Amino acid sequence: MLLKAKKGRVVCYQNKNSHFGGSIQNVINLLNWVNIIKYETPMKNVVLLGLSIATIFLGGCATAPISTSLAKTTPKDRILAYQEKLDGYAEVEITRDTGFLGGGCYLSVLFRNETIGRFDTGEKATFYLPPGQWAMAVASDPDGRGLCAAAGFNPAFEQQNIKLNIKNIFRISSGPYRRPRLLPL
């Protein structure tokens, strides 16, 4: 990522692999819009540098979706339930986003108040669940230790529609909401 000043405006040139360039560009666009950034005094340069650094750290906290073809398979010891392919059950693939936020801790997925899997960043797992509307949630790791155990949060259960005869794909996302969520794709 490269920031350049051009005639009182800041332009962000970002690598296509950057996970937080868009956040930086949004802040720069806002600052340009309100005409705060003009390179007339050294103090404004310091303010710009401070805002850019803060944006990098805050923008770096968001997670980014990963293609299911690129995601690693979750190890079998962390896939805890619903692995048997039964007649009348639907295939459900769950992938956890990549990114910094919560990256040091596993997150678990709850189905019918039961932990069915524990995911690290960039991992995926396939489950076989009964079709219908079900309350599902992302929760902190029940086996977490140290800071991961202290980082517990109350899971927010949301109704998910599991459909028969299609591959149901969900992602664990830690976006701008207060806690990680399970989002359908």
Overview of the molecule:
The protein is of the alpha+beta class and 185 residues long. It folds into 2 domains: 2-60, no CATH class; 72-184, Immunoglobulin-like (Sandwich). It contains 3 helices and 13 strands, in the order ββααββββββββαβββ. The strands form 4 sheets. A 5-stranded mixed beta sheet has the order 4-9-5-12-13, with no helix packed on it. A 4-stranded antiparallel beta sheet has the order 8-7-10-11, with no helix packed on it. Strand 1 (2-6) and strand 2 form a beta hairpin. Helix 1 runs antiparallel to helix 2. The longest helix is centred in the first third of the chain and has 18 residues, at 42-59. The protein starts with a strand and ends with a strand.
The CATH class designation of the largest domain is Mainly Beta
Helix content: 10-25%
Strand order of the largest sheet: 4-9-5-12-13
How far is it from the N-terminal to the C-terminal residue, by CA? 29 Å
**N to C succession of SSEs:** EEHHEEEEEEEEHEEE
- From the spread of the alpha carbons, the general shape counts as globular
Total helical elements: 3
Record field, number of beta strands: 13
Here the CATH topology of the largest domain equals: Immunoglobulin-like
What is the beta-strand fraction?
35-45%
From the alpha-carbon coordinates, what is the Rg to the nearest angstrom? Answer: 21 Å
Low-confidence stretches: 1-5, 10-22
Overall SS class? alpha+beta
Largest sheet: 5 strands, mixed
Number of domains: 2
Rounded mean pLDDT is 76
In the CATH hierarchy, what is the architecture of the largest domain at level 2? Sandwich
